[in-house]
């Protein structure tokens, strides 16, 4: 089986890929791709047994909209999820620090801002394409610091300066949830397992209280909403003369739940244009709660 992930090797996506396959007995070929779009495009170009893993939600940064859009646009399915604690380390060399600075991905630098501002307030930040790329650069020139995972430090043999330097919010440390994707819906239902289902709702109308109407249906069928995210609609809307929003809803149940099915039917009835090939609701997949 091929598994595509957001590279390079040693990234948190690489960690997520390994964790998601830890109970598989068959051989896995881990293939890094950049940027995120190429991870999903590579999956689409492969056979039915290939999978991909992409970041979906970060505790400090929130939802990764690009990931949701790629799932929707490429019509792939969410079949699993994986949570990875985001533990950043500071490593490298004091030599030349004021000139070469602290290198990392901009999101990693932002997620470690409390520590970096307290202990290195006057040291410049150098933004690079990934945390492991920053470690590679520091390792090659043997000067400056990098913010990277412990695996990244070991890969490029950087001396550890400080472990676990990430920001703490509301008493919790950072984590990222990842989605496991497949070209076909290969997810399996297991009793005594908590599931989530992601749907995209595109109401091809525009009126006051639209979101309230959608949420009213979710509430009416006694479904628990975990997350909601809105954006301008992706699908063809120009022919309808409106510019609707679309909504990603993460609902706490499996797609085979009867109340969920009734809710989807009701949303379709209320928001799909009559005599149209369009559909107001698309189910993006069901998956166990992150482990």
TrEMBL record:
The record marks 176 as: Essential for prephenate dehydratase activity. Residues 2-180 form the Prephenate dehydratase domain. One of its GO terms (cellular component) is cytoplasm. It catalyses: prephenate + H(+) = 3-phenylpyruvate + CO2 + H2O. Keywords: Amino-acid biosynthesis, Aromatic amino acid biosynthesis, Lyase, Phenylalanine biosynthesis. It comes from the Bacteria. Gene3D superfamilies: 3.30.70.260, Periplasmic binding protein-like II. Pathway: Amino-acid biosynthesis; L-phenylalanine biosynthesis; phenylpyruvate from prephenate: step 1/1. InterPro entries: ACT-like_dom_sf, Chor_mutase/pphenate_deHydtase, Preph_deHydtase. It is an enzyme of class 4 (lyase). Its EC number is 4.2.1.51. One of its GO terms (molecular function) is prephenate dehydratase activity. Signal peptide: none annotated. The keyword Amino-acid biosynthesis applies. The keyword RNA-binding does not apply. One of its GO terms (biological process) is L-phenylalanine biosynthetic process. This is prephenate dehydratase.
